[in-house]
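Feature request disguised as a bug: please show the residue count (212) next to LytTR family transcriptional regulator in the output. Example input:
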Amino acid sequence: MLYRLFYFEAVFLKEHAVDALLLDIQMPDITGIELLQTLLQPPKVIFTTAYTEYALQSFDFDHVIDYLNKPIRLPRFIKAMERLKIQLDLESNAAEASSLVVNNQKVGKLETLVVKEDKVTYRIPVLEIDYIQSWGNYVKIFTNNNQVRLARKTITDLEKELKTNGFERVHKSYLVNKKSVKAINGNQLILQDQTLPIGGAYRLLVKERLLK
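Example output, currently without the count:
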């Protein structure tokens, strides 16, 4: 919203959020600069005035975008509006980016695991991964559609990356997707088409977490 503000509208401004103001410096009873100083969260402002001596003072505020001398010429007004739009767009984009970062931090989940095998890059949907097996300096990634990918990663690194996706370390050589576990039989995990060992050091923790 864009308002041309007079003194009697000051109360409205304090109670309602606006994007920008076209604000006259010389107003009855109060100057535009004085009014701006009363606002805790001032919007973007374009000052207008017939008094050029206020120009430098008006730019003491970070949120002042431009200063228009009266009489206002249309080309100059358009230029000020373009500056305003750029600033509002920048703030909007920054807010969206910040929100995205926060949401990603809250969710903390990977949707896709990117791995290289024989110089070919594969994107594996995390939801399709059943389990991961350590293989020396590599790992084997087994998916629920019977694909196996060999990637130069450590199982410890993948354990950290996939922790918030419901993957649990069940053995020094195995990382398993909890959703793929059908049953626990003694020291073994039963998956759809595979049985995995449970390492002694992981036994109590695995049963506690997978039986929830």
